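Task: sequence design from structure.
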């Protein structure tokens, strides 16, 4: 008897941004294989007796190899169990979900992909930055600062779109900003980096691309560059921890941007 594997996107950080379908399959899971960026609160949705396997990685601790994760999913499903593979963001956006789906397909294991809210859209939204805006931006690209072989080559995409979103940028922020400028992106273009997006620890820094090249943030972090970033001072709405960092448009070369008091949840 074969079980089933659900490749579930856990969302960008706030556990309340999990989809209803994601919550549904978690509540009946026999096994949950989760990443570091999946909110810990979501594990509480699984039955008390469900097996929980930490497959994530962090500084100073090796990750479970991808091949081992693939084997684990196939093996547990082969026992007839319902397995949830819980991944931060969306499983098919720099989440290696395609590799896991491929391994399941080759093993003839039934699976379902449950999309999640990616930081690529959530981080800008929670910083008051629309990725597209009439008259300012009609095209968007989402890239990663890091690939399996090392730093990503952003040369081709640097000037190809109005709004550029770079995920997993914290440890290469200066390098990425400098590289985009060298590839032709204007040094004075509005840019923002959002760390720990959608959580109480969210930190948003807005400045020019050149100024952000000198900034530092902790992971996870997302860089957004383009004219739409200039709207952040007006459209910022989320107040991390309801602290009210700033209620006026940012000023100076680099500013931390909060927003108005968030509506009740």
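Answer:
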């Amino acid at each position: 008897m074969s079980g089933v594997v659900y490749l579930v996107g856990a969302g960008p950080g706030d556990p309340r941004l999990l989809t209803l379908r994601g919550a549904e399959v978690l509540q009946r899971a026999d096994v949950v294989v989760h990443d570091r960026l999946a909110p810990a609160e979501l594990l509480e949705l699984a039955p008390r007796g469900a097996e929980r396997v930490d497959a994530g990685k962090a500084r100073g601790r090796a990750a479970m190899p991808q091949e081992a994760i693939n084997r684990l999913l196939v093996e547990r499903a082969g026992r007839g169990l319902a397995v949830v593979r819980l991944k931060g963001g969306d499983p098919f956006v720099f989440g290696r979900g395609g590799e896991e789906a491929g391994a399941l397909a080759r093993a003839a294991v039934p699976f379902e992909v449950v999309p999640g809210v990616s930081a690529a859209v959530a981080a800008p939204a929670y910083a008051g930055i629309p990725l597209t805006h009439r008259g300012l931006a009609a095209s968007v690209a989402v890239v990663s600062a890091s690939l399996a072989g090392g730093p990503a080559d952003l040369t081709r995409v640097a000037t190809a779109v109005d709004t550029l979103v770079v995920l997993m940028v914290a440890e290469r922020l200066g390098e990425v900003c400098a590289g985009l400028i060298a590839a032709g992106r204007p040094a004075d273009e509005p840019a923002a980096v959002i760390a720990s997006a959608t959580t109480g620890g969210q930190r948003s820094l807005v400045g020019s691309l050149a100024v952000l090249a000198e900034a530092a943030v902790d992971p996870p972090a997302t860089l957004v560059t383009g004219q739409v970033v200039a709207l952040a001072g007006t459209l910022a709405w989320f107040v991390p921890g309801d602290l009210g960092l700033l209620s006026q448009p940012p000023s100076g070369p680099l500013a931390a941007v909060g927003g108005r008091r968030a509506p009740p949840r």
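The helical segments are 20-26, 66-78, 97-106, 119-126, 173-182, 209-212, 232-235.
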